[in-house]
């Protein structure tokens, strides 16, 4: 609980865990999670190296791949006590959550994946992830040489919503808030991850959310997830960019409510 700076608020019969994406922390959910506190126990946390997590717990070997972050999430679920939870996962947390669900079968009863991708790299001829290996290598190199420059380049492209520059500024600050070496290592684990082989084993009912003009998770990758996750549902959010919970919180809440509050 201390390692991942777990915070719990609200009360109700449902436990709802919000998992942030790369380069952010639990504060990214501040416009969305309070709406659920009236009828749910809301759980927020920070991955190690993000937000107010215990940076002393960082182990380069453990966090070399997404498996280390999934183990952390599984241990957070253990610390919450018995009973099923629902997981709302942004970006890479979709695949981290998938791994945690496999580590703790039956614990996660329902998932929402917002802007998630099973594989970011193109793998021709049969798979398009949106990024060429050379592009990712250049991105990681820029992060290592000039983190602020990388953040200033990427943030406007993934946030969009140019009419609200404060959102881009917030994302830049978030990208640059942690230890540069840890942030880069996390980015490498994210962009070189490949979760495609795990998809057939995922048995958790899942809603896959696609936003307009999302360059991190374009429709080709979210449709791939929908096709390969048995029993999954697909929804297009009334939002633009990769961070709908920051840019379009009202629409995001409505979409989450329509799925999570449903009896089926």
Automatic annotation (TrEMBL):
Domain AB hydrolase-1: 16-254
GO terms assigned for molecular function: hydrolase activity
Pfam families named in the record: Abhydrolase_6
Protein's organism: Derxia gummosa DSM 723
Gene3D superfamilies cross-referenced by the UniProt entry: alpha/beta hydrolase
Family: Belongs to the AB hydrolase superfamily.
Name of protein: Alpha/beta fold hydrolase
Keywords annotated in UniProt: Hydrolase
